[in-house]
Write a structure and sequence with these properties.
This protein has 146 residues and is α+β, with helices and mostly antiparallel strands. Helix content is 36%, strand content 26%. The chain contains three helices and four strands; from the N terminus they run H-H-E-E-E-E-H. Strands 1, 2, 3 and 4 form a four-stranded antiparallel sheet that branches. Strand 2 and strand 3 form a beta hairpin. The longest helix has 25 residues. It is flat and about 50 Å long.
């Protein structure tokens, strides 16, 4: 048997890594799988690239981030939920997803909850320095009063 080079914690850390380019990994993996399946298939069979925007209904959900009213093209009505944009390759027997995106609305009035606050670095530094100045000022006042 082969030796286990990596522990399971190595794999878990890799899967939890936010800075890894997951769409690129999925794209490269699907390109390899697609080329392998095309080599197995009859050359007369054509492959197609499919783009699908399915609606994921979340009518009972209340506190999901970026939950919005989205238009469902199948029912012709608005519902609470998300749009799953899937791009993939198919030969009418197999479907291999190439890229996946979970989308919400671009219009703020369609959001069901308040938008989460997204801080940029300059805002975080401003809050940090304001907190330090406030702590220093209160320590200075306490020192003067005692």
């Amino acid at each position: 048997m082969g030796e286990n080079i990596h522990s399971k914690n190595t794999y878990y850390r890799f899967l939890e890594n936010d800075s890894f380019n997951w769409p690129r990994l999925l794209f490269l993996l699907s390109a390899k799988v697609t080329s392998y399946f095309q080599s197995l298939c009859n050359p007369s069979r054509c492959g197609l690239f499919v783009i699908d925007d399915s609606t994921i209904h979340r009518d009972r959900n209340k506190k999901a981030d970026l939950l919005a009213r989205t238009y469902d093209h199948v029912t012709g009505k608005y519902c609470k939920g998300f749009t799953l944009l899937t791009r993939g390759w198919t030969d009418s027997f197999i479907f291999i997803p190439v890229l996946l995106n979970l989308l919400s609305s671009t219009q703020e009035e369609n959001y069901c909850n308040e938008l989460p606050i997204i801080w940029d670095v300059s805002q975080m530094w401003l809050i940090f320095f304001t907190a330090i100045m406030t702590l220093n000022r209160s320590a200075f006042i306490k020192e003067r009063l005692s």
